[in-house]
Inverse folding.
């Protein structure tokens, strides 16, 4: 059985490989040593040399994390025995057998990513020292296997960000997507020449943003897709990976006109039911997983709301403390080509932030989104003129065509996503937690049957363990 070491400090939780953990433990044991080991612990913003996975905790600061070296307090090392599920074992074994050319360090990073995807207890993790080859192989394998995961690769830092988005993660950008779809529906656009997409979970330059707004000249396939807006959500995770993704997106797409970030903080960091408590005894001893209606039957009769945690069998499955937004726009809009969005700026002309819950002070955020939508509108009109120089743009410039974000729709989507996230967590916990002795569980509930059968490969050790019996020789006497 493998052992994983969890290193906790005030900012991050770092999962280290067994060999790195042994070096860390030896460092703690030998206090008389003053020299640092080669693979010392590093914070997220350090330039890592080894493999580690960083799970961020929620942060309430409004300032963007610094790009330089970060302070790190003395961590507490807690050895924990890790039980990899059968799902992760099958994925790791299949990946290794299909990609024998990957280096040992790259293979360990990919294996760690697959194990996190299969047995994750958080939404986001970072993997360091991942090369372009390893990233490409892992991305192709995940796409073929049908596993739900979102990858972002930052090549200059050789960092892989893996996200397992929940329904609550998707909710803010779903509301903003609806608002932009209604906004673009008001434009009398020329048919069969211009394509406007407001998409979620679409791959864009080695990343999969939560929201992407793009314009495309479909009359000429040689024309590139113009990405005008991006949106990202951070739910119950550190903002360091969020700002890394945003900075990388702006570097790749300097013509971006609008960038949105939604940050959702939970009342406390989520954890599954602990052994011995009421929820653990009641739910885990049940032979089958509860259907959704049965699961929420114990949540009370009050209508769901953002200020009402999802509590079932005495355990809090989801509880929101704060929902806030931050918006950046390109200063000068489409008229300026040499000035990209600055994620680290504090200029009120370029960035705005506000809280949606528990108090609503979204005025500056809504104004900034409307300014970004107007810049996208001007870019849309310019593209129409490029496609059809003689087009009458008076209808496109109608001042009555404005953007409006429905805050009630945002509230409804967040409330509905709370229930979905609570049930998702229950499902993940029930299917991956070892059963108490004396209880049985259906094989199709283990989370293995949903993997593509052709990707699992033959099971290890499937040969018969029965030894071939030797023929018995009768009537042969031993020679003296």
């Amino acid at each position: 059985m493998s052992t994983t070491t969890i290193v906790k400090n005030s900012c991050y939780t770092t999962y280290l490989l067994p060999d790195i953990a042994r070096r860390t433990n030896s460092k703690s044991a030998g206090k008389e040593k003053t020299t640092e080991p080669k693979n010392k612990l590093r914070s997220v913003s350090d330039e890592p040399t080894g493999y580690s996975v960083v799970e961020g905790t929620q942060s309430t600061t409004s300032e963007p994390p610094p790009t330089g070296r970060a302070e790190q307090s003395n961590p507490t090392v807690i050895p924990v025995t890790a039980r990899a599920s059968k799902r992760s074992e099958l994925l790791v074994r299949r990946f290794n057998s299909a990609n024998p050319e990957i280096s040992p360090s790259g293979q360990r990073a990919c294996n760690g990513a697959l194990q996190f995807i299969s047995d994750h207890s958080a939404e986001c993790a970072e993997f360091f020292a991942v090369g372009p080859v390893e990233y490409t192989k892992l991305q192709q394998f995940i796409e073929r296997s049908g596993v739900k995961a979102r990858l972002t690769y930052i090549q200059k830092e050789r960092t892989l960000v893996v996200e397992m988005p929940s329904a609550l993660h998707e909710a803010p950008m779903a509301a903003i997507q609806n608002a932009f779809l209604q906004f673009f529906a008001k434009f009398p656009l020329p048919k069969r020449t211009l394509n406007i997409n407001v998409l979620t979970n679409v791959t864009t330059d080695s990343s999969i943003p939560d929201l992407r707004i793009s314009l495309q000249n479909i009359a000429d396939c040689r024309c590139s897709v113009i990405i005008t807006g991006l949106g990202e959500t951070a739910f119950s995770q550190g903002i360091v990976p969020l700002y890394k993704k945003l900075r990388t997106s702006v570097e790749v797409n300097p013509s971006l006109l609008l960038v949105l970030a939604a940050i959702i903080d939970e009342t406390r960091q989520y954890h599954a039911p602990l052994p011995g408590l009421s929820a653990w005894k009641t739910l885990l001893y049940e032979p089958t997983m509860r259907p959704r209606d049965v699961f929420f039957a114990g949540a009370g009769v009050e209508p769901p709301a953002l200020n009402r945690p999802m509590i079932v069998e005495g355990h809090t499955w989801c509880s929101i403390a704060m929902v806030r937004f931050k918006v950046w726009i390109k200063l000068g809009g489409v008229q300026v080509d040499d000035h990209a969005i600055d994620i680290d700026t504090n200029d009120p002309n370029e960035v705005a932030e506000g809280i949606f819950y528990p108090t609503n002070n979204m005025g500056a955020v809504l104004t900034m989104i409307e300014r970004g939508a107007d810049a996208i509108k001007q870019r849309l009109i310019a593209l129409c003129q490029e496609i059809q120089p003689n087009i009458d743009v008076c209808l496109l410039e109608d001042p009555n065509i404005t953007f409006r974000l429905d805050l009630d729709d945002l509230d409804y989507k967040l409330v509905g996503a709370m229930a979905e996230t609570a049930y998702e967590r229950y499902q993940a916990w029930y299917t991956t937690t070892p059963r108490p002795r004396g209880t049985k569980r259906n094989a199709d509930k283990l989370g293995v049957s949903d993997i593509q059968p052709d990707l699992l490969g033959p099971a290890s050790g499937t040969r018969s363990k029965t030894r071939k019996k030797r023929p018995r020789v009768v009537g042969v006497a031993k020679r003296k």
Notes: The first helix runs from residue 18 to 29. The CA atoms of residues 85 and 432 lie 6 Å apart. The chain has eleven helices and 15 strands.
